[in-house]
């Protein structure tokens, strides 16, 4: 496949190149996303997001859209099915509304972008955390204590390059092997992998506060837990919100409010950094994750079961 042009917010021309033999393409970006300096007012009350009609299933089998990330002037998201191996591809929704396949056979679930503008992938196919750029695919974390991971799911990247990710067992059957626990992991800039918390059942959504001093993780236990970060190291967590229904991915706005997707409840709930509920955003199918995007970073995109929704807001937020 010949290179496909991308553009970042500064209109620099970039390329997407298929990497032969790696079963993964390289997304090359030259600058991280930047958003409007004015933060804006967060949402309140009951809201409803609308489906993006142009995004329709690309597979015959049922599956999910996951891991939305806004890069340059487009939204990228994983599209995987429940067939054997959970085959996945990355699709692109361009600013002009066209939809295309950006990476075929990506093996991806969660997606993020690092400070260098490179795509970071939670790969259930590779059972690893990987990074893609024009040089190819680089494994950032492939094992812990001699074992591969279960099925890396969601990602948070700190300003200094430290990466946090969740490792539930939802797609553990995609490839052999796994961990004895479902865990939350930290990948230092040196590549050292440490276990942040291995006591929670299927940790899922993960995000960092705007200041990078709190790590937020939800899980199948129905809890949103805040882990203070001291000198770069997460400390013991405290419960911020309880009673979540099928908590999945999440993102933050520039105030530090958390947008938590609740899978079967078909909603995104917005909580303040203190855990107070601010708003509820309804959709018409199961949801998986959310990210801010658009030219001013004030459109909330929500992925789910064969559908993508968007909701213009007055506040800017994180691109994944």
Describe the strand arrangement of the main beta sheet, using strand numbers.
4-26-25-24-23
How widely separated are the two ends? 27 Å
Mean pLDDT: 88
Give the assembly state of these chains. Answer: single chain
The CATH level-2 architecture is identified as 6 Propeller
List keywords for this structure.
globular; five-stranded mixed β-sheet; Neuraminidase; mainly beta; disordered N terminus; about 325 residues
Walk me through this protein's architecture.
The protein is mainly beta and 320 residues long. The protein has one domain: Neuraminidase. The chain has strands at residues 4-7, 13-19, 24-27, 45-48, 50-51, 63-71, 74-81, 88-94, 99-103, 108-113, 119-123, 128-133, 136-141, 155-157, 163-167, 183-187, 193-197, 203-208, 214-219, 224-230, 233-234, 238-241, 247-252, 258-262, 267-271, 277-282, 287-293, 299-304, 308-312. Strands 4-26-25-24-23 form a five-stranded mixed beta sheet, with no helix packed on it. Strands 18, 19, 20, 21 and 22 form a five-stranded antiparallel beta sheet that branches. Strands 5-29-28-27 form a four-stranded antiparallel beta sheet, with no helix packed on it. The radius of gyration is 18 Å and the shape is globular.
Walk me through the topology.
Elements: E1 4-7, E2 13-19, E3 24-27, E4 45-48, E5 50-51, E6 63-71, E7 74-81, E8 88-94, E9 99-103, E10 108-113, E11 119-123, E12 128-133, E13 136-141, E14 155-157, E15 163-167, E16 183-187, E17 193-197, E18 203-208, E19 214-219, E20 224-230, E21 233-234, E22 238-241, E23 247-252, E24 258-262, E25 267-271, E26 277-282, E27 287-293, E28 299-304, E29 308-312
Parallel strand pairs: 4-26
Antiparallel strand pairs: 1-2, 2-3, 5-29, 6-7, 7-8, 8-9, 10-11, 11-12, 12-13, 14-15, 15-16, 16-17, 18-19, 19-20, 20-21, 20-22, 23-24, 24-25, 25-26, 27-28, 28-29
């Amino acid at each position: 496949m010949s290179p496909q042009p991308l553009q970042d917010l500064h209109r620099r021309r970039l390329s997407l190149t298929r990497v032969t033999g790696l079963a993964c393409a390289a997304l090359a970006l030259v600058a991280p996303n930047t958003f409007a300096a004015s933060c804006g007012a967060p949402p309140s009350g009951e809201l409803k997001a609308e489906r993006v009609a142009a995004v329709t299933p690309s597979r015959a089998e049922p599956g999910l859209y996951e891991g939305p990330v806004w890069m340059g002037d487009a939204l990228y998201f994983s599209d995987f099915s429940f067939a054997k191996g959970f085959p996945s591809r990355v699709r692109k929704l361009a600013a002009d509304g066209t939809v295309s396949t950006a990476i075929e056979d990506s093996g991806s679930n969660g997606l993020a972008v690092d400070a260098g503008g490179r795509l970071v992938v939670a790969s259930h196919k590779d059972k690893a955390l990987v990074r893609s750029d024009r040089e190819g695919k680089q494994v950032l974390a492939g094992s812990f204590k001699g074992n591969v991971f279960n099925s890396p799911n969601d990602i948070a990247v700190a300003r200094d390059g430290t990466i946090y990710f969740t490792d539930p067992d939802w797609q553990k059957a995609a490839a052999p092997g796994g961990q004895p626990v479902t865990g939350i992991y930290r990948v230092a800039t040196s590549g050292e992998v440490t276990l942040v918390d291995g006591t929670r059942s299927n940790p899922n959504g993960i995000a960092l506060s705007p200041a990078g001093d709190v790590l937020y993780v939800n899980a199948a236990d129905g809890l949103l837990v805040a882990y203070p970060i001291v000198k770069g190291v997460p400390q013991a967590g405290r419960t911020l919100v309880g009673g979540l229904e099928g908590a999945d991915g999440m993102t933050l706005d520039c105030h530090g409010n958390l947008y938590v997707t609740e899978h079967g409840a078909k909603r995104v709930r917005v909580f303040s950094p203190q855990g107070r509920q601010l708003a509820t955003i309804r959709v018409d199918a199961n949801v998986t994750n959310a990210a801010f995007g658009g030219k001013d970073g004030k459109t909330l995109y929500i992925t789910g079961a064969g559908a993508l929704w968007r909701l213009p807001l007055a506040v800017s937020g994180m691109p994944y």
